[in-house]
Amino acid sequence: MPSIRSATLDRIDPAILYRIAQLRTDVFVYEQGIVSEPELDGLDLEPTTTLYWAQVEGDVVATLRVLDDGPTIHIGRVATARHARGRGHAARLIDAVIGDFPRPIEISAQAYLEEWYGRWGFRRTGPNYLEAGIDHVPMRRDVG
After folding, report:
1. By CB distance 3.0 to 4.6 Å, which of 68, 92, 116, 117 could disulfide with 122?
2. How far apart are CA 88 and CA 67, in angstroms?
3. Does the model's pTM come out above 0.85?
4. Residue 32 belongs to a domain
5. Residue 86 belongs to some domain of the structure
6. Residue range of the domain that includes 37
């Protein structure tokens, strides 16, 4: 069972931060070929951004980030290591965010994951669109 952790950038051990950045780069740049937008976009540096990760024996196997804009938060950069997929790591991270932020949550989901996010009550809020050349759908989960 992985340990689920979260922290703002200034409270993350540099070795863990490196593993988070490496995982995101592996998934978004090398696997999905996203090169039109920088992976390190500066938003991780915001004091209201929280990074979440699942760790198994020191290995970061899944991660996401939460952008806290006030009454609504945004989940992004959800990534799971190829060797760790299908084991529920990302689901545990989503559960942790919902527990930590009992307010509306928005996500720009890759379209093929719409049903997966629906398990937590996320609902489509608009039409599909391309982001970095990948089909996405805007989704929102309201409290209550």
Report:
1. 117
2. 22
3. yes
4. yes
5. yes
6. 3-103
